[in-house]
Design brief:
Blueprint: H1 11-22, H2 31-46, H3 50-66, E1 89-93, E2 103-105, E3 114-115, E4 120-121, E5 123-127
Antiparallel strand pairs: 1-2, 1-5, 3-4
Amino acid sequence: MTASADFPQADHRAAAALCVLLGSPDDLEDPGVRDQAERARDLLRSGAGADELAACYRALDTALRRAGDARGLVNESRSARVPGISHDIKVAVCPGPAQCTRVERARDLLPAPPCAVNGTRMRKRRLGPGQ
């Protein structure tokens, strides 16, 4: 079994991973995972403290691993990322108050994806070389 992530230092990555998880119905088929993910979303929306969020992230990580997802919650394939290597790229960022740091590549012809943590549509912005 893989070790759980250290969530107090990685809570911004965990919030972004939670957003991606909530937007993926296939990953939420297990009721234990779905319940823990919804609880984490509710805690983020309510502005819960770091300790309470870290405990919830650990419980969600454990539920994911028990459901057969060896990645757990925070993993490079699920976490926040800045796509591409070009000098100036368009990305969608979350405008919500719950500090979701998810960044997705923004396509010109498609609307920005929804943020499942905050329940709002992400907004498009350009990232420059220093970001």
